[in-house]
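A common beginner's mistake is to predict each chain separately and then try to dock the pieces by hand. The better habit, illustrated here, is to supply every component at once so that their relative placement is modeled jointly.
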Amino acid sequence: MIVTLRLFSVLREALGSGLVEVELEEGTTGAELVELLAENQETVKRLQSVIRLAIKDEYVNAGITLNDGDEVAFVTPVSGG
Amino acid sequence: MESWIDIHSDPLSVDDVYAFLAEDEGGGINIFIGTTRRVTGDRRTKLLSYEAHKSMALKEIASLIGRAKNKWPLLKVVVLHRIGDVPIAEASVIVGVATSHRSEAFEATRFLIDELKKTVQIWKRETFEDGSTEWQGETWID
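With all components supplied together, the output reads:
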């Protein structure tokens, strides 16, 4: 299945794009997706414990099972203002 | 209660915010303007840039306004945040409220800017005078 990552700020720069499509095995959870990225990407690894996931503008639990076509936003600690 | 929420890359206008908040019944209008700062610690900043998950951030701001409305009798509320490059000393955020009394105006404004900084999906990148850049936000603020 294909899932699209929406990335912002430090993660967008680290992965080189704000939208990244990844092919995942059926049944992959949000936490497993973050773990997969952390294995290959130093910035994701550093922020792994503070990344929150959101689908359709709502935070979701990391244990959620992802579906084909999901767009998953990676939200790191905010710093606006 | 009327509210005006926006996130955009154009300069923010305090005059427009005041014009929106001006209200016959309001005895107090309070406007907080957050501006970009030159010096953080011992480093000199050349430029600040902001990025947002816009749809999520707008929804989060609307939720904060809802919470504020439950706490204080607000007549009007404005929350504007600029994104993209914001030169030093220009406004990056404006929070304004109109209420019947000043204490509520101060408290509600404080609540909105404090919560915005903790929860709204906007990120800041500093570009320092030595050319290095740094995204802010390593931990969530409780």
